[in-house]
Amino acid sequence: MQEPLLGAEGPDYDTFPEKPPPSPGDRARVGALQNKRVFLATFAAVLGNFSFGYALVYTSPVIPALEHSLDPDLHLTKSQASWFGSVFTLGAAAGGLSAMILNDLLGRKLSIMFSAVPSAAGYALMAGAHGLWMLLLGRTLTGFAGGLTAACIPVYVSEIAPPGVRGALGATPQLMAVFGSLSLYALGLLLPWRWLAVAGEAPVLVMILLLSFMPNSPRFLLSRGRDEEALRALAWLRGTDADVHWEFEQIQDNVRRQSSRVSWAEARAPHVCRPIAVALLMRLLQQLTGITPILVYLQSIFDSTAVLLPPKDDAAIVGAVRLLSVLIAALTMDLAGRKVLLFVSAAIMFAANLTLGLYIHFGPRPLSPNSTAGLESESWGNLAQPPAAPAGYLTLVPLLATMFFIMGYAMGWGPITWLLMSEVLPLRARGVASGLCVLASWLTAFVLTKSFLPVVSAFGLQVPFFFFAAICLVSLVFTGCCVPETKGRSLEQIESFFRTGRRSFLR
Q: Is the overall model pTM greater than 0.70, yes or no?
């Protein structure tokens, strides 16, 4: 039996014409470079991720401040600090659950805009908080908005982006989340905690204003039978000089073949359940590497280890490294490919977590540990080891190891898991499945964040980092066995790969 031609591309993925038209990646790359409006639409959407990143690490400088608050209604105990740090993830899980409905009901753009309501309300509650319940409710609402945008923005960006630059644009949600976190760390050096919440309102308002002028996803519009509006949206995104009819016909054909929503019976079919399983497991592994508890308790972790620099400065430096690393990933994702960056990312995170765990277990301990976040002194590290003064430059190890962990995460498992989630999920299940992935991801984050402090108190700070290192090894194996390379392929080609199992489409 004659083998199919490897690497051949054409308008019909089941045949191989002699002279196929230019690939969608070639067409789209030229169109994207000629027309900057697709980048403007992406920027407008990912402002929601900026707010998400800002809100996620809001507790890093705020928990230490509230632990020393003279107001008895706002003074945080160990247990209250744990809830304040982790309740965000419960809200994010609820946001992911709501995205399963809103993503397909309102559409990607309107769902992102809707997230501004709980986000603005949450920041307002925390800015004017006069009791713990206002802090927790505000934190939950900003988490809900973050979970909703985390499910909707990657889908929106992947559906408006040309294949040739989809990797770079797909990294922008993570990039903006990192920039939001860095902004919080920087402002935390200057502003009191209430004003940090006030400052969080600004990107939400700008996002609403810009998105009001942006088009909806052409794929979503076609799925609702609004063909003319979809064509106008695609033409606006690609530019007036671009020939969008070939791309429009490909999207239209794929949408027509999947005009109905996937049923539970169909969900068990390999071409549907396989990509959902890949996306879901990637989101779980991403959280199990420890990124959320490390970011939430970053300053507190530095407070509780022997470090050379002030913990606030360490947190800001780590935020800057994270931003730089995501920029590197955005620039190389469409050149090096997704899998290579995932391998490098997991290897760096493994080495960093293992190093930090060994340093905490065998290295020096702070002479007089702070009590931030309830990370109390005597339960950390080896109780048989007497407290020692910081041993010179050896105390740079926690900062360097954390920097490398954040760098490794931001180069691969941070942005690429979000991008691959939006790339591999089938169109008929994309809205529901992306919400399911975010729900599972943030429930995992809640369990990790809520249990982090009790585990540290019972077993020592080194134990979570040894666990995170083991998960990084699992991530290496999973990447090699289960993750497809999607670089330079259209969403229709990726879906055809899972449907037919023909690996030639992904080479």
A: no
